[in-house]
Every structure is written in C-alpha cells, then in structure tokens.
Amino acid sequence: MVATIEALENAGASEKLLRLIRSDRDVATAMVSLGNELLRKRGIFSDYELARAILGKDFIAPDEISNVLDLQYSNKVFGRYTKSIPSEDLLLWLKKNNFSLIAGPPCELEASEIVNLNYKLFNRGDNFFWQWEGYRADLVREEKLQVRWLMIRKKHISRSLGCSYKNMPKLISDLEYIPSVAEVIWELFIYKVIRNVWLRRNLRTAVRINGSDILYGDPCTNIRSSNENGIELDHPSQPDGYSDDLGISPARKQ
To answer: Which of 54, 145, 152, 164 could bond to 182 as cystine, CB 3.0-4.6 Å?
Structure first.
C-alpha cells in the first residue's frame, strides 16, 4: 500500500487527490475504472478478468461451469459469451446493486433438462414438477433457458417481502424484469454447484411462467432453496397470493 501511494505521488497525485481516493468511494471507483481501461487497452486485462475483479465470486464464467458439470461449450459458444460480456459500466452497476453475473448454458435447455443435470439438488428429484401435475406441468417443464449471460439480484427487494404477486412488478425499475422459472432454477443451481452457497436460502422468489405477465393476472409461482430440500417449485398461485417469506429478486435486462 505504501509503495502504491508513493507511485501515485511520483506520478503527480496531489495530497488532496490521495485523501479523496481514501475517503470518497466514487473517486476510488473512477480511478480503478481508468486503470482497468488502460490495462485492457494494453492487452493485460481481459474482459473476464475485469468481471472477476469487480464482481469476485458473483461472476461465474462458462469454463467454471464446464469444469464441474457435463456441459461442453464449443469454441463458437465460448466466443459468443466473450463478445457479449457486459460493459464495465454495467459490471459496476451489478456490483452496486448486489447482482450476480452467471453464464447460461452452451445450448438452449428446458427447465427439466437443468433438473436432470443433478436431480439430487432438487426437491423430489426427477419428480420436481409434481406441484404442477393436473394443471399445466408442460408450462414449467418445457420452459427454455437461453444461451446468454444471466444477471439476477442476489437478495430480495426488502419491501417486496409479504407483497402480493400482482404488486411486485411495481417495485422494479425499467432496467429490470421478473425472471422466469428456468432462469431462477439455473441461477440457484449453478451458484450452489460452483460456489456451494444457496442464494436466498429459505426464502421464496416469485417467477414468471413461460412468458406470462404477473401484473395482468397470469398464473404465477415461486421457487425456494434450502439445505433440507434443495430447490423447490411451489404450486400455481393466484396473482393476489402473498407470504411473509415471498419476495422478488429481479433480473437485469441485457
């Protein structure tokens, strides 16, 4: 740290600037951003390294997933993820708002195919969708996860806890959306497999179903994670349904 300060002084940094770097987070963030940009221009800092530097364990890349699961990403798909990684400004936004950045699958996967990757982490295993039998189990079982980066808030919006489904969309910004069944299943599953942590443990997360719109009365449900039962899918609910442990963790639009 002393050597870093001396280097900044030798480069012309004033005592006032050094004080601001130590005391003002915005100034420190701006300095880091400029430094990272310089490293990237010199080819020293890759986009993945930048994402890891900003998000730490909340960034999960395709290679981490393929090293643990039986999923193979082709060179073409790896390139697709590399080219589409969020900008530095968006990475900083994700960090500030407590979002994770997780690579999606190497090809489109149905929700049921995600469960089959390791059904032991899902409640009732290969019968994970039992709550929807007799209704429209195909709505959730066949919902597809796209080949793209997934950005979901790690914790619920605090004021959404105990809020009804139909009022939850009113709590998110125009930059966000309510994630789907497949997206939340993937997020919880991958974070547990790679980081060995259950996100939002013992809390229910509201999800969309196959493109439905909760705000306009379409069927809705929630997904919960716990040490005891793993990932659980609830039964279909009405838009005015609510629970003290039910909240919303929005996803960030691309």
So the answer is: 145
